[in-house]
Design goal:
Length: 236
C-alpha cells in the first residue's frame, strides 16, 4: 500500500508499482485547458488518473488497463477515493477501446506512462518479462490512437526515456501532434538525463524547455522536485 496525502494506492496485485515516473507525469502534466474529459492509457494502479482528479475539475476520467489483476486493483483504488463518481476503468486494449469509442468520445487530456518502456524493469522471470515486452504497446500505436481520441484543443502528456525523445516527436509530428512543453529529468546533477516529459497538442507552438533534477544526494530532494510533488507525497 502507498499512502498519498489525499488518496491511497493498493498495489499488491500490480506488476508495475507506484514509481517516480508516474508521480512526475501526474504532477507535471499541464492542465491549462481545464479538461472536462480525461483518459489515462495503461493506468496500472490508477495513480496518474487519481493525481489528475486531485489537481483538476474534470467531470469524467477514464482509464484503460489491459492486465486483469491491475484492472481489478485500479477499480478498487478508484472506488476508495474521494473522486469515485468521476473515475472509470475499462479492462481493454488501447486498440479495442479506440475502435469502440472513435468518433464518439474525445478527450481534452490524454496521459500515459507507457508500460512498454521500462527498460530497467525485471520481475526476475525471463519468460514473464519477454511476454510483457512482446505485448508492449508500440509508440506508433499509442500516438495513432491518441490522435483519434484527442479533442481539438486537447493535450497529450507522456513520459518516455530521453533516448526515445527525438524519434517519438518525429512520429507524433507525422500524426499532427506537436510539443509545446518538454521537461528533461535527471536523478542527480551528476547523472545523465534519463526521462523526457512531453506535452503535445494539435497546434504547433513555441516549445518551453525545462530541466528537473530530483535529488542532490540520497533522499535530499531539490526545491523544484519538492515544489512539483508536495501536494501528493506525505513527507514533502
Amino acid at each position: 500500500m502507498f499512502q498519498f496525502k489525499k488518496f491511497t494506492i493498493n498495489q499488491d496485485h500490480c506488476a508495475m508499482k507506484v514509481g517516480t515516473d508516474g508521480v512526475l507525469l501526474g504532477a507535471w502534466t499541464p492542465l491549462y485547458n481545464n479538461p472536462y474529459r480525461v483518459l489515462d492509457i495503461g493506468s496500472g494502479t490508477g495513480l496518474i488518473a487519481l493525481m489528475i482528479a486531485q489537481r483538476s475539475n474534470a467531470e469524467q476520467i477514464d482509464a484503460i488497463e489491459i492486465d486483469d489483476e491491475a484492472f481489478t486493483q485500479c477499480v478498487e483504488n478508484f472506488e476508495n477515493s474521494l473522486w469515485s463518481d468521476c473515475l472509470y476503468c475499462y479492462n481493454a486494449s488501447l486498440e479495442d477501446f479506440t475502435e469502440e469509442f472513435f468518433e464518439e468520445t474525445t478527450y481534452d487530456l490524454i496521459v500515459s506512462n507507457p508500460p512498454f518502456y521500462s527498460e530497467n524493469y525485471s520481475s526476475g522471470n525471463e519468460k514473464r518479462d519477454a511476454a510483457r515486452f512482446t505485448e508492449a504497446l508500440p509508440f506508433e500505436q499509442l500516438i495513432a490512437c491518441t490522435e483519434g481520441l484527442l479533442s481539438g484543443n486537447g493535450i497529450f502528456s507522456v513520459i518516455i526515456p530521453y533516448k526515445e525523445e527525438e524519434s517519438f516527436l518525429e512520429l507524433a509530428a507525422e500524426y499532427g501532434l506537436y510539443p509545446f512543453k518538454i521537461c528533461r529529468v535527471q536523478g542527480t546533477p551528476e547523472t545523465e538525463i534519463k526521462r523526457s516529459l512531453l506535452a503535445l497538442t494539435r497546434i504547433p507552438a513555441e516549445i518551453t524547455f525545462e530541466n528537473l533534477i530530483i535529488e542532490t544526494a540520497r533522499h535530499q530532494y531539490t526545491e523544484d522536485y519538492i515544489a512539483l510533488t508536495k501536494d501528493f507525497y506525505l513527507k514533502m
